[in-house]
Amino acid sequence: QVQLVESGGGLVQAGGSLRLSCAASGSIFSINTMGWYRQAPGKQRELVARITSGGRLNYADSVKGRFTISRDNAKNTVYLQMNSLKPEDTAVYYCNADISVVGGRYVYWGQGTQVTVSS
Q1: Which string of DSSP letters, residue by residue, matches 37-86?
Q2: How many angstroms separate the CA atoms of 24 and 9, rounded?
Q3: What is the spatial distance between Cα 39 and Cα 44, in angstroms, rounded to a whole number?
Q4: CA-to-CA distance for 31 and 99, rounded, in angstroms?
Q5: Cα(67)–Cα(80) distance, rounded to whole angstroms?
Q6: Cβ(8)–Cβ(93) under 8 Å?
Q7: What is the Cα–Cα distance from 85 to 67, expressed in whole angstroms?
Q8: Three-state SS for 87?
Q9: Burial zone of 83 (CB within 10 Å; 0-12 exposed, 13-18 middle, 19+ buried)
């Protein structure tokens, strides 16, 4: 069984920074793409950033130049450094990972962590 556990959310003023972490644990053979999504009230869940096992990066236009995704393969962990935060970044942030386990390859989600940016 695989779990993704997120940490690092909270309340911050506009212009501030937060760092999210997401650690995968369980019977993992390998981790492929890892990423972060977010969902604001009344809106659909959207991609924020993702990183492949080879280090290829992909960002939403709204966060380019402000957010940085990285991963530590030895720790099965993905990070999201968020700088110059804006009130419109307020959302629940979800970790996502494409993981190979014995018997198959599946997409897993974390439980979500709230990020609130005050103006």
Answers
A1: EEE-TTS--EEEEEE-TT--EEE-GGGTTTEEEEEEGGGTEEEEEE-S--
A2: 17
A3: 6
A4: 4
A5: 7
A6: no
A7: 9
A8: helix
A9: middle
List, for residues 9-66, the tens digit of each pLDDT value. Answer: 999 999 999 999 999 999 999 999 999 999 999 999 999 999 999 999 999 999 999 9
- What residues contact 98, with CB distance under 8 A and at least 6 apart? 31, 32, 33, 34, 105, 106, 107
Q: Which tokens in the block code for residue 106?
A: 């599946």
* 43 residue type, one letter: K
Could you tell me the pLDDT band of residue 85, with boundaries at 50, 70 and 90? Answer: very high
